[in-house]
Inverse folding.
């Protein structure tokens, strides 16, 4: 990392975000994640009524269209979780009670 650089992870809306509808966490090309506020975008789709998986997929599709960069996002809704990525691989794991 560059000296004095603040990555996307601690930036609300970029590396993480939540509302009453649910929350999201993202990783990948940090500058672009911060520019498009990827986690905020994904949670916005939950607020609009999409399920967690659909919200994750839509956010990643738009992220790739806007930036051409790679990222992954995990979205947690009220009763479900979803994840999406546009890289060759991204390990995710979801455990349900």
């Amino acid at each position: 990392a560059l000296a004095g650089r603040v990555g996307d992870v601690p930036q609300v809306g970029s590396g993480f975000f939540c509302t009453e509808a649910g929350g999201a966490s993202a990783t990948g090309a940090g500058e672009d994640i911060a520019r498009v506020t990827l986690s905020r975008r994904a949670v916005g789709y939950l607020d609009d009524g999409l399920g967690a998986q659909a919200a994750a997929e839509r956010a990643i599709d738009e992220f790739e269209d806007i930036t051409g960069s790679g990222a992954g996002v995990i979205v947690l809704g009220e009763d479900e979780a979803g994840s999406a990525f546009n890289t060759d691989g991204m390990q995710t794991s979801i455990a349900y009670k």
Observations:
- The CA atoms of residues 7 and 15 lie 9 Å apart.
